[in-house]
Amino acid sequence: MGGGDVVVAVDVGGTGMKCALVGPDGATVHTERHPTDAGRGPAAVVDTILDVADGLAAKARADGRTPVALGIAVPGIVDEARGVAVWSANVGFRDVPLRDLAVTRLGLPTAIGHDVRAGGLAEARLGAGRGAGHVLFVAIGTGIAAAHVVDGSASVGAHGAAGEIGHILVRPGGPRCGCGRPGCLEAVASASAVGRRYAELAGTPATAADVAERAAAGEPLAAQVWTETVEALADGLASGQALFDVATIVVGGGLAQAGERLLGPLRAALHERMTFHREPRLVAAALGDEAGCLGAALLALDALGVPRSMETR
Amino acid sequence: MGGGDVVVAVDVGGTGMKCALVGPDGATVHTERHPTDAGRGPAAVVDTILDVADGLAAKARADGRTPVALGIAVPGIVDEARGVAVWSANVGFRDVPLRDLAVTRLGLPTAIGHDVRAGGLAEARLGAGRGAGHVLFVAIGTGIAAAHVVDGSASVGAHGAAGEIGHILVRPGGPRCGCGRPGCLEAVASASAVGRRYAELAGTPATAADVAERAAAGEPLAAQVWTETVEALADGLASGQALFDVATIVVGGGLAQAGERLLGPLRAALHERMTFHREPRLVAAALGDEAGCLGAALLALDALGVPRSMETR
Which of A252, B65, B287, B297 could form a disulfide with B22 if both were Cys (CB 3.0 to 4.6 A apart)? Predict the structure, then answer.
């Protein structure tokens, strides 16, 4: 890649798209945000993605840069090898051949990736997991999902569904998960589950952030819910560590915004559970909600064969 | 490798060593078994491993073959990159630089691997997982451990400790595991746990094989223990599938000798737990107790850079 070359990166979420032009060193030179308006249906969303990507390529050219590839991160089940958005609950994708559609429209080499895996890639290579080699990125928000990144590549699985740590069993007979099974990690410890559990006990609605704050202020019900959450997360992360044996666990997503209120007790609870395991470093994500977009850019750079040593920021 | 070339393979267990000479196509041309006599201490065991390997190389030469590399599989924590047997409960290894010792003694390129990962490698490439691409091999015996094999390579982890599916939490507050924590899969569903649980309920000792047989014969206590075991294993495998998304799960080890008495109900229980997951094929291991030795041979072939397409048996 030349000095003026950039990749176009788009991270498609249920409510908004985070977009950027990114250089070969992983440095962002321009960002944009656009609404997804998922209610319009998947065909309209795909049109918007392509319009936005095309607009970003045009913006690059207007600024004297050369757009050389496109990376798109989407939620749900993603077949990265075929470039297909297989299934998504919140955007409504069903077997959308997004890569081919993008290549036809923009004429650029295009890579499609899963949003959490893209975020994990970015945290592992440019963010809080930098230099660790083996990283587990865990995004805790409305749901819980993970990306296992080894030497800068995220595990995809046989069908594009790897990393669903939100659906490992931690509380048999526990709260029913959106997936239909009881006791999944996500049903106990996602940001939505924390708010729901507190509302159930206190009889008054609250967000996970409220619960974190009230727990820190010593409110007993909030403290109880927070402790239950931390214990369930520690159980889930300990099971993940038994299987993956990573050097660093990076915690991101909305719940991670509680910072050390989450990470302090979670680190202690994880430490308690480490017996034969090698204890991983547990750190907060560093790239915030730009991780997915940066990861989409990395997928585009990887598709071009840009050496990773260029990631120097 | 030439037509008369073979690799020397040694699989070191707590009680015995399985040894073989293996051709570049994965075909075994000679096998031997030797006692490990772990009670003599790790130094004596290392001497025996090297004597046995040296003897196998001599046997190859006496038969007009050329030994070109050595593969050794050992239990415990294994640093495959450095060739070091880091830790083993039943053989007593503590940071044994086994690869360097073998290279010094035999003068052959040598690869060291973890026994379950080696077994998983063999099942994935030559056995029940052949052609699947993404395979989880789960060995259920005295303990429970797994190997995640993608495109013919087993995940090792950051510290050589990946795949410890026996220590994922399935029954919070359940039986205490050898690792010190309550409710690990291994504490509920290993062959030893099955025998122990039945003895506890029935007041009379029994092996896991006894329990399987009595459950099939309709004995209520045995049926109860068998069902508990299958449910716990299904919980563990479902959590594994959520994280790994494999195409095939291969079940091996002593408990798998129960055949369809285990696999039939386990397949049904796993099916029940698959919601968003792509359901993996669940099959019995095909290579029996030779899997680890064949895997050691594959590690040696990989170290030599022998193309995998030669595995044609």
Answer: B297
Of A134, A162, A181, the CB nearest to B245: A162
| Strand arrangement, sheet containing B248-252 | B153-154, B144-150, B134-140, B248-252, B281-284
Residue A27 exposed, middle or buried by CB count within 10 Å (0-12, 13-18, 19+): middle
**In sequence order, what are the residues at sequence separation of 6 or more whose Cβ sits closer than 8 angstroms to the Cβ of residue B103?**
B109, B110
Pick the residue from chain B with its C-alpha nearest to A155.
B244
Q: CB contact, 8 Å: B146 with chain A? A: yes
What's the maximum distance between 2 C-alpha atoms anywhere in chain B?
60
Residues B235, A170: C-beta atoms closer than 8 Å: no
Structural contact between residues A138 and A165, judged by C-beta atoms closer than 8 angstroms: yes
pLDDT tens digit string along A175-227?
Answer: 999 999 999 999 999 999 999 999 999 999 999 999 999 999 999 999 999 99
Q: What is the pLDDT of residues B18-65, one digit of tens each?
A: 999 999 988 999 999 999 999 999 999 999 999 999 999 999 999 999
Question: Do B170 and A172 make contact, defined as CB atoms within 8 angstroms?
Answer: yes
Structure tokens at B308: 């995998």
**What is the distance in angstroms between the Cα of B222 and the nearest Cα belonging to chain A?**
23
Residues from chain B that touch A158, judged by Cβ atoms under 8 A, are 132-134, 245-247, 278, 280
The CA-CA-CA angle for residues B253, B257, B263, to 5°, reads 95
Exposed, middle or buried by CB within 10 Å (0-12, 13-18, 19+), for B291? Answer: buried
- Written as one letter, the residue type at A65 is R
Q: Which domains does chain A have, with CATH numbers?
A: 5-120+289-310 (3.30.420.40), 133-285 (3.30.420.40)
Best B228, B243, B244, B272 member to test A by mutation, with max A CBs in 10 Å, is B243
Largest separation between any pair of C-alpha atoms in chain A:
60
pLDDT mean over B237-259: 96
Q: Which amino acid is at A107?
A: G
Residues B284-306 have pLDDT tens digits of 999 999 999 999 999 999 999 88
Encoding tokens for residue B215?
A: 């459950």
Distant-in-sequence contacts of A208-215, Cβ < 8 A, 24+ apart: A208/A254, A208/A255, A208/A258, A209/A254, A209/A257, A209/A258, A212/A258, A212/A261, A212/A262, A215/A261
